[in-house]
Automatic annotation (TrEMBL):
It comes from Ganoderma sinense ZZ0214-1. PROSITE patterns: ENOYL_COA_HYDRATASE. It comes from the Eukaryota. GO terms for molecular function: delta(3)-delta(2)-enoyl-CoA isomerase activity. This is ClpP/crotonase. GO terms for cellular component: peroxisome. GO terms for biological process: fatty acid beta-oxidation. Belongs to the enoyl-CoA hydratase/isomerase family. InterPro entries: ClpP/crotonase-like_dom_sf (IPR029045), Enoyl-CoA_hyd/isom_CS (IPR018376), Enoyl-CoA_hydra/iso (IPR001753). Pfam families: ECH_1 (PF00378).
Length: 276
């Protein structure tokens, strides 16, 4: 395959490159802040991940046949637009979603959940290169990856945050499941979910939300992410990474397959009024 590869081909919102035999980079460039829309997820990000997996599996089969384990190494870096240092992803496109009457019933089970499932069960390590703000659904996207490398925020402020509580939005069951499986400290989880705390990179590192702090800009974050990818990529050569990961995250993967529970603050208040 000739790189770079864009998805969709006619007007790419995601670009895949292969900078080393071990590493693929999946770059998201959906507008200024990588809002997670149905089209972006289904027509760009998911096909890009599917393509990387297909190529890695071809390499893995070749490695089995030739007994050359180096062919089966691999890791993926997911990064925000590399032409800026401000956003990894600003989450769901709430303004656009309010215009779509089918959003609540279709977006999560048909668009976002399948992408989270792909990341949580991906057969090779996935590293989020968080090169700027990482809010709401963008944070969940990063948390669904295996590792997170974040800018140090010295050049430009960078926060990672679930800010739904501040505008009265419920965090759906399956998104909450991703957070629970990746944030083991109950006090940190309380800050994430109930306080909507804006974690600086340094706070996120101490809290265990991210794994490493990198340079001040996207280039520095990508370089640190690639160093990590080269380190963990060889683990994938046995083919067991994805199998063990699916078992590790079994509960949240099963939750992603359930029907969506539609509940907003108005409906919740009406139910409480009827009960009380």
């Amino acid at each position: 395959m000739s790189y770079p590869v864009g998805f969709p081909a006619s007007n790419p919102l995601v670009t895949v490159t292969h900078p080393s035999p071990v590493v693929w980079v999946v770059e998201m460039h959906n507008g200024a802040d990588n809002r997670l829309t149905e089209f972006f997820l289904t027509q760009a990000l998911k096909p890009a991940l599917d393509t990387v997996e297909r190529l890695w599996r071809e390499n893995w089969r070749a490695a089995v046949a030739s007994k050359d384990e180096k062919l089966a190494q691999g890791a993926v870096i997911l990064v925000g637009n590399t032409q800026q240092d401000k956003f990894f992803s600003n989450g769901l496109d709430l303004a656009g979603s309010q215009k779509d009457p089918a959003f609540k019933t279709n977006f999560f089970p048909l668009s976002f959940n399948p992408v989270l499932h792909r990341l949580l069960s991906f057969p090779i390590p996935v590293i989020a290169a968080v090169n700027g703000h990482c809010f709401a659904g963008g944070m969940v996207l990063a948390m669904a990856c295996d590792y997170r490398v974040m800018t140090d925020g010295s050049k430009r402020n960078a926060w990672i945050c679930m800010n739904e509580i501040h505008f009265g939005a419920q965090i759906p069951l399956f998104l909450m499941g991703v957070l629970r499986t990746k944030v083991s400290d109950a006090l940190v989880l309380r800050k994430v979910v109930l306080e909507g705390h804006r974690f600086t990179p340094q706070e996120a590192l101490v809290s265990g939300i991210i794994d490493r702090i990198a340079g001040e800009n996207t280039a520095g974050v990508l370089a640190a992410a690639q160093t990590l990818a080269e380190k963990v990529g060889p683990i994938a050569k046995t083919g067991a990474w994805g199998i063990n990961k699916r078992e590790l995250h079994r509960e949240v993967i099963e939750a992603l397959a359930r029907d969506v529970q539609i509940l907003d603050v108005i409906a919740d208040d009406k139910a409480a009024k009827a009960r009380l």
